[in-house]
Each structure stands twice: as structure tokens, then as C-alpha cells.
């Protein structure tokens, strides 16, 4: 399908999965240059976060990395997509990081590449060097990238099974009408049912799906419902670990908006806290998508 972004969004969202077993074939020069060009054209966030991305190879380090937690599960590629951003805790920069990097991932998916977000424990020093991380920058996550192996490895099944990757929360747990006590039924979402369904398919750290969306007459309001005990905020501040659930939110925003763009439905992101009672203290307002026409 012809599209602004030069790839079919819904198709990419539906075919993407966290690929952990690759073919051991380097990314072709053609695919790499197409992806690098895409990165050059799409590296800025909606709210102006300063982001940088690079594709790099870890040759000798992989053996060491293998021994380190998550990397043990990545087989058959030594290529990684690495992102850096200027540190900030107050704005929506981490969300924007997730948004932009997921856009790049969907483009990569359309080229037949497999990807896997890696936000858990990873050896930052190796990737810091790869992207020449500056003093005021952080490296929130990296993406394993390459051609997927024909047959998925045992690790794919183990991890996917472990985090229940193929499972997503049902509509009534994620989408609401006016307030958090009224679930939004798919049939009532009208033209928005596809963008919401595409949001539901978004990847998230440990498949926690921390996004909640409330629709009212002003627009679609995005809330982050943190998982209790998951990544204690105090610990995050003390270590240099990124707040992965904020990245998850950005990924969800990407799936939602990119699908809307593909459907030629236009609108804008605004930060304007709506008068909606929060269901608990784990939930916080993030951002709203407001359509250009009055019809929501
Ligand atoms: C921010 C983020 C961090 C992630 N970190 C890891 C990781 O460290 N290791 C890993 O194997 N998978 C990681 N994942 C992949 C998720 O486990 C996966 O997206 C989720 O289980 C849903 O499965 P799917 O991507 O196949 O749809 C991460 C995903 C996101 C969005």
C-alpha cells in the first residue's frame, strides 16, 4: 500500500514479533541504506526530543554478551540498532524514544527484517562505544536486528511462552469510554477500532501492556498504568536503567498514530490533563490524541 512512510503500517504491525533467532546473514547493503535513510528522515519525536540512532555490529563481543542474561537468547545476528537520547525525566522524551524507534522497527519489518527490543539487562559499555554516547545522553534500549531464521529456535518459544507473548489483554481491560468504569466496546469504536487493535498488538517490556486509553468528546487520552513493584522508581533513579514502561507507552502511541495516518485520519498529540478520575495511584495521565475534525 502506498503510504507517507513508504511502508504498509498495518501489515508490518501484524507481521512483527520479537525475533530471537536469526539467519546469521548480514543485513544487505540495499536494506541497510534504505533503513539508514528512513532513520535520517524520521529521527525526531513529536515533542522535539533529541534522538540519535545507529546500526552497528558487535563481532568479538558476542561471546561475552551471550553470557549476560538476555543476550543468551539472541542467536544468529551480531547487528544491533542502538539509540541514544538526551536525558530528561520531566518531558515525554522516553515515550518519544519508544515512538521513533518502533517506527524504525516497523519499517525494518516491512523489509523482511526481524527485530527484538532489548531493554532488560544489557552490557551498556559495548553499545555506548558503538554510538559514541555523549556525557548528557542515555542509552535506554537496543534492538537486535537481522533476517529471521526460517525455523524459530527453542529460545523463541521459551521466552514467548514465559511472557505469554502471544497473549494480549482484552479490549475491556485497555480501552474505555468517558471514564475507567466503562469499557469501550469494539463496535462502538467505529473507524478507530483498527488503530486500537494495532495498539493492542504493540510489544511491551515483559508483555505487561501498561497502556490504558479513555475516549471522550475531546479525544483519546493515553494513561500509563504501571505494574506494581515492576521497576521501582527509586531504583531506576539510582541505577542508569531506563523506565521501560514509558518506552512501552511511546510504542503504543506509534502503533495508534501510524495506523491512523495510513487510514488518512489526521490529528495531533496534546498534553492537557482531562477531568477523568484515575482508577488507582499506579495510573498517570500521559498524552491525548485529538482529531483534526470534531468527530471522534
Ligand atoms: C521496552 C521493551 C523492552 C524489552 N526487553 C526485552 C529484553 O530485554 N529481552 C527480551 O527477550 N525481550 C524483550 N522485549 C520483548 C518483549 O518481551 C515482547 O515484546 C513481548 O513479550 C511481546 O511479544 P512480541 O514482541 O513477540 O509481540 C522488550 C520489549 C520492549 C517493548
Concise description?
The protein has 296 residues and is α+β, with helices and mostly antiparallel strands. Helices cover 32% and strands 19% of the residues. α1 crosses α4, α4 crosses α10 (244-262) and α8 (193-200) runs antiparallel to α10.
Topology:
Elements (H helix, E strand, L loop, with lengths): L8 H7 L13 H13 L9 E7 L4 H5 L12 E8 L6 H18 L3 E5 L5 H7 L6 E2 L3 E5 L7 H9 L8 H4 E3 L15 H8 L10 E6 L2 E7 L7 H6 L5 H19 L4 E4 L12 E9 L5
Parallel strand pairs: 6-7
Antiparallel strand pairs: 1-2, 2-4, 2-5, 3-5, 7-8, 8-10, 9-10
Helix pairs in contact: 1-4, 4-10, 8-10
The structure holds flavin mononucleotide.
* Domains (count): 2
Q: Can you count the beta strands? A: 10
Q: Briefly note the CATH topology name of the largest domain.
A: NADH Oxidase
CATH class of the largest domain: Alpha Beta
Largest sheet geometry: 5 strands, antiparallel
Gyration radius, in Å: 19 Å
In whole angstroms, how far apart are the ends? 25 Å
Shape estimate: globular
List SSEs in N-to-C order. Answer: HHEHEHEHEEHHEHEEHHEE
Quaternary status: single chain
Report the structural category. Answer: alpha+beta
Mean pLDDT: 87
**Secondary structure: helix percent:** 25-40%
Bound molecule kinds, no repeats: flavin mononucleotide
- The proportion of strand residues reads 15-25%
Features:
alpha+beta; NADH Oxidase; 2 domains; 32% helix; 19% strand; binds flavin mononucleotide
